[in-house]
Structure formats: structure tokens, C-alpha cells
Amino acid sequence: MEKRKHAVFVYGTLMRGERAAHMLDQYEYIGEFTLQDYALYQVSYYPGIKEVPGAYVTGEAYMVDDACIKDMDEYEDEGTLYLRKKVQIRNEQVSMEAFVYVYNQDVDGPAITGKWRKGDFYEENSSN
Fold first, then answer.
1. CATH numbers and ranges of domains, the chain
2. How far is Cα 32 from Cα 112, in angstroms, rounded to an integer?
């Protein structure tokens, strides 16, 4: 029986070169994509996203299986800290549906549009 596959869009610590990227090492990297009408927020030493009309977030898409989704749900504290949602992501070649983890707590501070950079958040907040 073939495993179910899911596209997932990541924008922070799960991206290549970041501290939790190893969780996606064995899965297919699809490419860089944009998620419209969401913005990044500094929520600790990691980012969270919230819906913001007109904003956008740039991140990476992967094709993963049910086991990876389960691991990511645990990593993201799905249902409490983050909510897993299905969204539409796009790049110059394709538009596709993907899961994304949306921050489920209140945020303060400025919304950031574009791509998360480690230095935007880690410098003053990370002990890693």
C-alpha cells in the first residue's frame, strides 16, 4: 500500500540550514514558494505567521508522508501553539495546495513580509 503524500510549506526553523531542518532531510524538496495574505511575527527565537491581507511569506515546500505530518504536529504543538491549515502556495511555475502551521497565539510587534532570516530573530533570543 502506497503512503499518502502531502505538500507542506515551511517558513522558519524547518527550512534548509535551520536548526530543525533535519526533520525534512529524507523528504522531497519541491522548491521555494510564496504564501499570500500572511505575515511573519517574532514569537520567540522562532517565527510564527498570521493572516494579514496584502502581505506575503516566502518559504520552502516539501512532499511528506503521514508519519512526517505526525512528527511536525508534535514539533509545532499543533492544536495549541500552532494550527495546521491547508493553504494555496505558488511560485513562478506552479500553484498548489499545502499544509502550513499558523501561529495560534496573540502577537505583538511588527509584521514582517517576505523571507525569514535567522538574524531577524535569533540574535537576541536564542540560546542555541
1. 5-125 (3.10.490.10)
2. 18
